[in-house]
TrEMBL record:
<dbReference type="GO" id="GO:0006355">
    <property type="term" value="P:regulation of DNA-templated transcription"/>
</dbReference>
<protein>
    <submittedName>
        <fullName>Regulatory LuxR family protein</fullName>
    </submittedName>
</protein>
<dbReference type="Pfam" id="PF00196">
    <property type="entry name" value="GerE"/>
</dbReference>
<dbReference type="InterPro" id="IPR036388">
    <property type="entry name" value="WH-like_DNA-bd_sf"/>
</dbReference>
<feature type="domain" description="HTH luxR-type">
    <location>
        <begin position="1"/>
        <end position="61"/>
    </location>
</feature>
<keyword id="KW-0804">Transcription</keyword>
<dbReference type="GO" id="GO:0003677">
    <property type="term" value="F:DNA binding"/>
</dbReference>
<dbReference type="InterPro" id="IPR000792">
    <property type="entry name" value="Tscrpt_reg_LuxR_C"/>
</dbReference>
<keyword id="KW-0238">DNA-binding</keyword>
<keyword id="KW-0805">Transcription regulation</keyword>
<dbReference type="InterPro" id="IPR016032">
    <property type="entry name" value="Sig_transdc_resp-reg_C-effctor"/>
</dbReference>
């Protein structure tokens, strides 16, 4: 698995079930960037879908489990 870099920022909200639009809003980036990051994550983790990517990322210690709530997710790096 290659270095994930900026892509790691989308892993927690991805695993929590947030949509690409919600992730983009929370990270203050365009949805196309989120799409690109998720595609790259799927490739690097050899995941078939978002759920598998989230599970593999958690198992590899790249992210932590988060519950999807009504509270807007925020970027911990900001």
């Amino acid at each position: 698995m290659g270095a994930l870099g900026r892509e790691r920022r989308v892993l927690a909200p991805l695993g929590a079930g947030h949509s690409n639009g919600e992730i983009a809003d929370a990270l203050h980036i365009v949805e196309g960037t989120v799409n690109a990051h998720i595609s790259s994550i799927l490739d690097k983790l050899n995941a078939r879908n978002r759920v598998q990517a989230a599970i593999l990322a958690y198992q590899a210690g790249l992210t932590w489990p988060v519950r999807h709530t009504q509270v807007k997710w925020h970027d911990p790096l900001r």
